[in-house]
Amino acid sequence: MIIGGMKEKVVKNIEHDAVTGQLNAKVEVNDPIFTKAQQTAVLQRYLQRNGTLTYRFNNHVSRQVAGLATRYFNRRTRFEGLENLAGVTGGAIITSNHFNPLDNTVVRRMVQRTSKKRLYIVSRDTNLEMGGVIGYLMNYYDTIPISDDKEYAGRVFPKFIQQALAQEQYVLIYPEQEMWFNYRKPRPVKRGAYYYAAKFQVPVISCFVEIQDLPRMDNAEFDQVRYVMHVLKPIFPDPQKSVRDNSRAMMALDYQQKKTAYEQAYGKPLTYQFEPDDVAGWRGERMPFAPSAEKTV
């Protein structure tokens, strides 16, 4: 499903950042940029609302809406490796590649099919300002905002993660950070997800979503696609290692598993040399990338 209008500039930004090796950079255009005051206001509003009667009611409604949407959007999604979840009994952090505003529904469908656990989703604080149904879900579904605000990131955010894990629920963290629309390749991962897994002694459920093209038009720029969720071997922290060493080891293993899954799914080695097929379903006009070209964000 295409969300957010035409994607020609986004595809050019993906090509630019792939060529220049900026594989965790922002590529979406016209995303909101907060001032410090706006950031503080958004976080305060979220914290004040969280746990209130109004929030609990809307949380219930949003979970029902998200559940129905998840089944609809993933009616063609295939799941492989679900047996790998057998050894995960308590809370866990889920990691997956990030390529669509609704790719969390693929993970949510996996959770629906295998357990009765809730899925909390870590999302940028700017997403709380989105409008429409997506904005409603961002504000009232089981979303844990992440922010550059040092006070919030250092003291409040970890408590939300710990609380969800202590209740033996799942937390989805995108270790690639930024979303690259329909980008097939797993990108290098950042350490945050693995730090929390090591700190709170929970496993990482390692996932990779393969994107397959369909011979049907979605819009003027893209054909439709379908997904194959590959549930990989869970990664458990070593109780004999420090948080630092554990997080680094878990991070390296998770990236290696995603890399292997990509190579098996697409039948070719993972490189970050940009290819026209890297953006799944793309039918738009391609312009040769010039290294001096500037990004549009």
What does this entry look like structurally?
This protein has 297 residues and is α/β, with parallel strands linked by helices. It has one domain (33-278): Glycerol-3-phosphate (1)-acyltransferase, CATH 3.40.1130. It is built from eight helices and seven strands. The protein has helices at residues 8-19, 36-49, 53-73, 104-114, 132-140, 150-166, 192-199, 243-266; strands spanning 78-80, 92-95, 119-124, 143-146, 170-172, 204-217, 223-231. The chain has a seven-stranded mixed beta sheet with strand order 1-7-6-2-5-3-4, sandwiched between helices. β3 (119-124), α5 and β4 form a beta-alpha-beta unit.
Number of strands: 7
Helix proportion of residues, in percent? 25-40%
Using the coordinates above, name the CATH class. Answer: Alpha Beta
Strand order of the largest sheet: 1-7-6-2-5-3-4
Q: What's the N-to-C terminus distance?
A: 22 Å
CATH architecture: 3-Layer(aba) Sandwich
Please name the CATH topology.
Answer: Glycerol-3-phosphate (1)-acyltransferase
**Structure classification:** alpha/beta
Give the averaged pLDDT, no decimals: 91
Number of helices: 8
Instruction: Domain count, please report it.
Output: 1
Instruction: Tell me the Rg in angstroms.
Output: 19 Å
For the report, how would you describe the main beta sheet? 7 strands, mixed
Low-confidence stretches: 287-292
What is the string of SSEs from the N terminus onward? Answer: HHHEEHEHEHEHEEH
Portion in strands: 5-15%
What general form does the structure show? globular
